[in-house]
Amino acid sequence: MPTETKQISEFQSGSWEQQFGYKSFLPTPIDLEWIVDDPVLQSLLSDADRKLGELNAYGTLVPDVDFFIQMYAAKEATQSSRIEGTATEITEAVMEEQDISPERRDDWSEVQNYIDAMRFAVESLEKLPLSSRLLRQTHEVLLQGVRGKHKLPGDFRTSQNWIGGASLKDAVFVPPSQERIQELMGDLEKFLHNENINTPHLIRAGIAHYQFETIHPFLDGNGRLGRLLITLYLVSNQLLTRPSLYLSDFISRNKSLYYDNLTGVRQKNDLNQWLRFFLVGVSETADDATNTFRQILALKSAIETERLPRMGKRMELGFQFLRALYRNPVMSAQQIAEVLAVSSATANRLIEQFVAQGILQEKTGARRNRLFEFGEYLGLFDRKRGV
Known about the structure:
Layout: E1 5-7, E2 14-18, E3 23-27, E4 33-35, H1 39-61, H2 65-83, H3 90-93, H4 105-124, H5 132-143, H6 181-193, H7 201-215, H8 222-236, H9 248-253, H10 255-268, H11 271-307, H12 315-327, E5 330-332, H13 333-340, H14 344-356, E6 361-362, E7 371-373, H15 375-379
Parallel strand pairs: 1-4
Antiparallel strand pairs: 2-3, 5-7, 6-7
Helix pairs in contact: 1-11, 2-4, 4-5, 4-8, 6-7, 7-8, 7-11, 10-11, 13-14
């Protein structure tokens, strides 16, 4: 049976269903072939595709790329969680729990869970399709042992939720009732995998994100999972060879526009404007990631050709240490000794040389339990440092 075809300008978002004392929004199914009928959108799509191609090229050129992907994951986890109200910085995200001040450990745990959930989801794509099952399993990892642990980790909601407001009666938006979730998520899953439609992958990703956020299938974690869904879709369809593109930083900086555009689809059927915003986000984020890869390569080259040779007989150990810092850019002397399998004395001498070369900086100001950070490297992932 051929799939129905519609132009994006013809999109109808859904209707309101009367419930007991309130109305919930029932989105229309999206498993159709959507035709891009706006020249501006077509141009933005072409630009985003090109930027993704450039990012993929760097993903294959950069040595030890998976070390750097871990930092992208840490950046995404802090930005995505910040949208939901946590205050963890990327420097804290790469630290050990014992080095986090007690009053910030709850936020830190949420970010760590998100990093674990991202890793789990990407690895699961090797054996599972992008599906409701995979999303539920990822949700379980996301909420394990943190503030949302009582909000049905790993299961779709069995009660009505809402967005904004103190109750259902004054809510900004009420998603579909819990009885509708299975059919709506089934339709979303079919849309993601429908091989009989020619809708471009980035358009599918943008529509899928909108629909997921509108369904709001979980009691907690919908925003984080909805943003991760974009990356998982791009990876599963080989638009990304590595999970190196995450939109949370762009969304965080344009938070009001993000919510306005999602609302515009529901209230005005303006899917076109949402997709314009989404594709601009993809292009800017891919550009940022590509520039970061360029800066990583430049920093790596400068350190390896100019600074490490000054270390004389410890240069080989210095190379090992540098590789370890790409993975863990904030460490204590004890951690460094353990990672390199050297004595404390050797680790301390190595630290002194890295500090003297400007590679490491001591960040606590204490005499004991000192922490050292690879500041130039961290700065490539943190706008607040102004690098």
